[in-house]
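Could you help me review a protein record that somebody else here produced? Here is the record exactly as it was handed to me:
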Amino acid sequence: MLLGEILRVALTALRVNKLRSLLTMLGIVIGVAAVIAMVALGRGAQRAVNERIAALGTTLLTVIPGQVFTGGIASSTDRAPLYVSDADALEREGTLFAAVEPEMTRQLQVQYQGTNTSTQIIGTTPNYLDVRKYTIESGRMFTAADNDGRKRYAVLGATTADNLNPGAGSALLGKNVRIRGIQFEVIGILAPKGGATGFNDPDDQVIIPLNTARFRVFDTKYLRSINVLARSESMIPQTMTEIERIMRRRHRIPPGRPDDFDIRNQADFLNAFQQTTQVFGVLLAGIATVSLLVGGIGIMNIMLVSVTERTREVGIRKALGATRFNILLQFLIEAVVLCLLGGIIGIVLGAGGASVLRYGMHWNTDVSLASIVLAFFFSALVGVIFGVWPARRAATLDPIVALRYE
């Protein structure tokens, strides 16, 4: 039998049993679609993390309160405080810093007319925009004089503005909002930064002057963190060393004693998140791959049933001169075609599902060409692997026994 005739006979056999062929492909369709969708979710999460870290700046260092050590034992609850004077000392004594920006934060209710929303209130200095890589969309940022004068000025994040005045957040410019019952004038609205996750939205915040937050809103002298901007990525180790030197002297920590503060590097965050999302992506892809294997086993079972049903047909073909190779190739082609068709349908469904998640539910997904090609060839491989045994069984049938089969 010629290859073209073998292919035609195989496709005819699949077309005659349309429902059985469709049900046989279902496992491969689900498996391929799941692989593409799951890999897209993993890649999307990793890309979102990378963009978020890049938006913060790879040279950003964050000093946060560390554990308190008593008698050489770290306290599990107490944290050593950070003060505004610590930030002042870093700015005054540091020689390698591009900027120093202290922060104190609270989650509070913000009210505008009859609307209120719970958001993060950040008390900080005017260089917050430069350090955190934000830009003003309308209005202005408060100044150092506003901070010194404890002005009741507020700069709203894009999400917060939209929550307070849906559809017309920019109209809040020049209006008054209430934070903890205190009236603040909105002097600026930030441009949206994006990169929101289920746990944090960088555009859902209100920025107020540090001294206003310290004395009028929070009534505290403790900072949540101090952000320090290194001059370049290559200078991060020296910058961290200088921060440690100044902070240890400020906190009067004797030699040999551990720091009562921590210095976080954005590169460390990036590496940790990348490793986590990679493991997450591999796990999802592994779970989806099981679906492909289950689909392959289903194809093998159906092909074995097909061989049994078509035993007499195999006998007739052998009697007419078909060789073992011809019979083997015919049934193998049927299995591979089933898998390839299932793979194509699965690719369309998987990519379409990822797009629905991205644009309909606003999830971070990223369909890669590599995952599509891999899923397609893997589906073909499944067809070959799980089609060989049924094809070999058909090829080895004795023609006399096959012709007598009822």
Confidence is low (pLDDT under 50) at residues 72-77.
